């Protein structure tokens, strides 16, 4: 099987309502990586808006992308 590129949003996906990453989320991301998938963040947030989370998120997702939407 060829690995896939999988993107996650931050709010409500990686982070719960308390802005924490659950252990089950960390385990699921690790399982995806072990199966050969690349995992990254796709968010409308500017990088400075999640600097406080970067340390923990970077350990899980060292590859981070910022997707901006202009409306």
UniProtKB/TrEMBL annotation:
Pfam families recorded: Hydrolase_3
SUPFAM superfamilies registered for this protein in UniProt: HAD-like (SSF56784)
InterPro entries recorded: HAD-like_sf (IPR036412), HAD_sf (IPR023214)
Gene3D superfamilies: HAD superfamily/HAD-like
GO molecular function, one term: magnesium ion binding
GO cellular component terms, semicolon-separated: cytosol
Record PANTHER family: PHOSPHATASE YKRA-RELATED, PHOSPHOSERINE PHOSPHATASE
Protein name (record): Hydrolase
Source organism: Bacillus gobiensis
């Amino acid at each position: 099987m060829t690995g896939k590129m999988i993107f996650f949003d931050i709010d409500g996906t990686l982070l719960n309502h308390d802005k924490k990453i659950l252990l089950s989320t960390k385990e699921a991301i690790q399982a995806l990586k072990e199966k050969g998938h690349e995992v990254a963040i796709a968010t409308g947030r500017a990088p400075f808006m999640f600097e406080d989370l970067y340390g923990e998120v970077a350990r899980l997702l060292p590859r981070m992308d910022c997707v901006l939407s202009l409306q």
